[in-house]
Amino acid sequence: MSATTGTTGTAGTTRSNRPPSVAAIGIARIGYETKGYFRSPDAVFFTFLFPLIMLGIFTAAFSAAGEIQPGPDAEGLSIGAYYLPGMLAAGMLLSGVQNLAVDIATEKGDGTLKRLGGTPLSPVSYFLGKIGQVFVTGVLQAALLLLVAATVFGIALPTAPEAWLTFAWVFVLGVATSALLGIALSALPRSGKSATAVVIPIVLVLQFISGVYLQFSQLPEWMQNLASAFPLKWMAQGMRAAFLPDDFAVLEQHGTWDLGWVAFWLIAWLVVGLVVSRLTFRWIRRDA
Question: Where are the membrane-spanning stretches (predicted)?
Answer without folding.
Answer: 43-62, 82-105, 134-157, 163-188, 195-216, 259-281
